[in-house]
Design goal:
- This protein has one helix and twelve strands.
- With 156 residues, it is α+β, with helices and mostly antiparallel strands.
- It has one domain: Lipocalin (Beta Barrel).
- Strands 1, 2, 3, 4, 5, 6, 7, 8, 9, 10, 11 and 12 form a twelve-stranded antiparallel beta sheet that branches.
- The longest helix has 24 residues.
- 18% of the residues are buried.
C-alpha cells in the first residue's frame, strides 16, 4: 500500500512538472497589458485599459475599462483544434462562439461567430522574443458597423 501511494505521488509530480514545462514553453501563456497608445481601433474609441490573462489550458480572460469608464470582462478558449467553444461575458463583437487554429508556435487564427454567422476574423501573434503580442482583427460590431483593429500587448 505504501509503495502504491509513493508511485501515485511520483506520478502526480511528474504530470505537474510536465504541465509547468509546457506552459513555460508556450509564448502565449501569461499576463498581457494593452498598450493603448500603440494600438489602432477603427472605429474608436479605444478602451481605457485591458489586461489579458492567457492560461496554459487555453482559457483567455480579459478584464478592463471601456472608453466610457465602465468595467468590461469577458473570456474565451483558444485551443487551436478547429472546434467551436463558447465565449463568455460582454465580448465587444457580441459573439457566442470562437473557433481557433494554431498556425505555428507563435500564431493562432480565430473565427468568432454569433448564432452561426461570422462576426470577426482574428490573428494572435507573439513576437519572436516573446515580449509582445499583436492581435489584428476585422469584423462587424453588433450595431452593424465594420471594425478593423490592431492591438499591441506587452508581456507582464
Amino acid at each position: 500500500m505504501k509503495r502504491m501511494r509513493a508511485l501515485l505521488v511520483i506520478f502526480v509530480l511528474v504530470l505537474a512538472a510536465g504541465s509547468l514545462a509546457w506552459a513555460k514553453d508556450d509564448p502565449f501563456v501569461g499576463t498581457w497589458k494593452l498598450n493603448v497608445a500603440a494600438s489602432k481601433f477603427d472605429p474608436g474609441p479605444a478602451p481605457q485599459s485591458q489586461i489579458r490573462t492567457w492560461g496554459a489550458d487555453g482559457n483567455v480572460s480579459i478584464m478592463g475599462v471601456n472608453a466610457a469608464g465602465k468595467a468590461q470582462n469577458y473570456s474565451y478558449m483558444i485551443k487551436g483544434d478547429g472546434k467551436d467553444y463558447p465565449t463568455s461575458g460582454a465580448i465587444p463583437n457580441g459573439s457566442d462562439t470562437i473557433n481557433t487554429k494554431k498556425v505555428n508556435a507563435n500564431t493562432y487564427t480565430a473565427i468568432f461567430t454569433k448564432a452561426g454567422k461570422q462576426v470577426e476574423a482574428t490573428k494572435f501573434e507573439v513576437s519572436k522574443d516573446g515580449k509582445s503580442l499583436t492581435i489584428t482583427l476585422t469584423g462587424v460590431l453588433p450595431d452593424g458597423r465594420a471594425m478593423k483593429n490592431e492591438t499591441h500587448w506587452d508581456k507582464q
